Amino acid sequence: MLIGILQTGHAPDALQAEMGDYPQMFTRLLDGYGFDFRAWAVVDMDFPASVHDADGWLLTGSRHGAYEDHPFIPPLEDFIRRAYGAHVPMVGICFGHQIIAQALGGRVEKFAGGWSVGPTEYDFGGETLRLNAWHQDQVVERPAAAALAAASDFCANAALIYDDRIYTVQAHPEFRPEFIDGLMRLRGRGVVPDALMAAARDRLDAPLDDRELARRIAEFFKRPRAVRAAPAKA
């Protein structure tokens, strides 16, 4: 199964040599599930020709806001709507979670309650998963087609499911603790409150449930569907 990674942002240059960019992080996260991967840097206006160029799509995080004026956002929203209409499965992470919700009628805002950083606990239907977070923006109104899949005290719409077509999560299962630490050093200063970053550093060694979320993502992509997407091109 070919998973197309729609890259909506870039990791800081200073961290890429050791940790890779976002496509490499997701390739590592989903290693062992039998997927092949191809990445398109949509943030740089590199788009697939068709929603059927992959068997499923994964939308990454980004430092951009879904509501901001960037050239790649309108065509990405159009791509999301076309993939949804064609029943090609999609997974969205952080910005991917937000832009999918926005494209399908939800609303995203810079959250007045501030930032969520580092290991954070989410309620996935009665099961608690601890995952790394790095965001201020949130989905504040979910689309009519979306059902709630997870929430936290800080983030009401922490994961959404759109029947068997889309699964999205606000947290970052692909971010390792050292990457969160690097983001705090390189992008957090003067943006994220110092006290919040200090508290996040104190719990960076907490065990994470990223492998469990990876399993759920892989299971979502592989589940049998009544309407199948066209096969990816060779």
From TrEMBL:
Keyword Transferase: no
Entry EC no(s): 3.4.-.-
CDD domains membership: GATase1_1 (cd01741)
UniProt source species: Ruixingdingia sedimenti
Domain Glutamine amidotransferase: start-end pairs: 68-177
Enzyme class: hydrolase
SUPFAM superfamilies according to UniProt: Class I glutamine amidotransferase-like
InterPro entries: ChyE-like, Class_I_gatase-like, GATASE
Organism lineage: Bacteria, Pseudomonadati, Pseudomonadota, Alphaproteobacteria, Rhodobacterales
Name of this protein: Type 1 glutamine amidotransferase
Entry keywords, A to Z: Glutamine amidotransferase, Hydrolase
Gene Ontology molecular-function annotations: hydrolase activity
